Amino acid sequence: MTSYMDYTSPNTEFTADVNKSLLFKKDDRNYINVLSIKQLNTLENTSLLDIFLSKSNVVEPHYHQNAAELVYCIAGAAVVSLINPFTNELLHFPIMPGQVANVPQGWWHYEVATVDCTHLLAIFDAPIPEVILGSDILSKTPANVLAHTYCLNEALVKEALAPVKPQTFIGPPADCCEPSMGKMENTMAPQAMPYNAMPTSLMPAQMTPNGMPNNMMPNNVMPNVMPNNVMPSSLMPNTMMPGHVMPNTAQGAVSPHSYMAPMQSFGYSPYYVNTGSAQPYSIPQGPYAGTQVYPGIAASETVTGQ
């Protein structure tokens, strides 16, 4: 790059305070400062973005039409994701302090912070980093064009894209309404366990069969059965009964008493039946857990480690 800067001019600048050059601010923990030739006129083919993010915040999908981008992690951790236009693959590169990810010029990409207090430095090989943002594409492309092109319902497209604001930069927006978790409360609460399904180990003594825990009940009053080692074989339940006349079932499948669980050698112990509500999914912990799991990644996509 040929410089036409007049270095004898009193307006020549050699230093700048990036902290005073705000590009975008979502809140006190999520903002971007910029340094380009507009802030430091002696810059040549270099510029940068100073990016601060809290966990799960995203530098929205975008591309730079005039520059490559080298993302350097100063603090925290992030995932740099990009689409390789030559292989049509979505790639993901987790980075931690001291590590970098390179995004060639014109490649679609985004960055996601996986921990709080993440600090990234994006360095460009252009005096001013130009950008085309996903939010601008979505908000400026007519809904009827999207609906017609992709065979979609135009009304639903308009409804879905209505909240998208141009120049989002860092998402989700500060006024984003997260899905309510209230509907999960009923599925998270365990249901009461019916008496017949409660194991005797969890059952109060006064509720055990016949009102006495089996381990304290004399053998001669054990419910419906006597220990096999003291019962005459002639009196063993069903042992002398032909299989074809076993009550309600084939021999040995259930107790002769159809309302009872099968008899055990030394007492009565009803089967445990798990009647608790199944939880369809756990409470979300954010788009990322650690640095190896990323929201929206299909099994066919590639995750690349360092």
User: So how many helices?
Assistant: 4
Main sheet specs: 7 strands, mixed
Distance linking N and C termini: 33 Å
Q: Which of globular, elongated, flat, extended, rod-shaped describes the shape?
A: globular
Describe the structure.
This protein is mainly β. Helix content is 9%, strand content 22%. It has four helices and 13 strands. The protein has helices spanning 134-140, 143-150, 154-161, 185-188; strands at 22-27, 30-35, 47-53, 58-63, 69-75, 78-84, 89-95, 100-103, 109-113, 118-124, 132-133, 170-171, 302-303. The strands form two sheets. Strands 4, 6, 7, 9, 11, 12 and 13 form a seven-stranded mixed sheet that branches. A six-stranded antiparallel sheet has the order 1-2-3-10-5-8, with no helix packed on it. The two termini are 33 Å apart. Mean pLDDT is 74; it is low at 180-212 and 243-300.
What are the key terms here?
single chain, about 300 residues, mainly beta, 4 helices, about 20% strand
Short description:
With 306 residues, the protein is mainly beta.
Topology readout:
Layout: E1 22-27, E2 30-35, E3 47-53, E4 58-63, E5 69-75, E6 78-84, E7 89-95, E8 100-103, E9 109-113, E10 118-124, E11 132-133, H1 134-140, H2 143-150, H3 154-161, E12 170-171, H4 185-188, E13 302-303
Parallel strand pairs: 7-13
Antiparallel strand pairs: 1-2, 2-3, 3-10, 4-9, 4-11, 4-12, 5-8, 5-10, 6-7, 6-9
Helix pairs in contact: 2-3
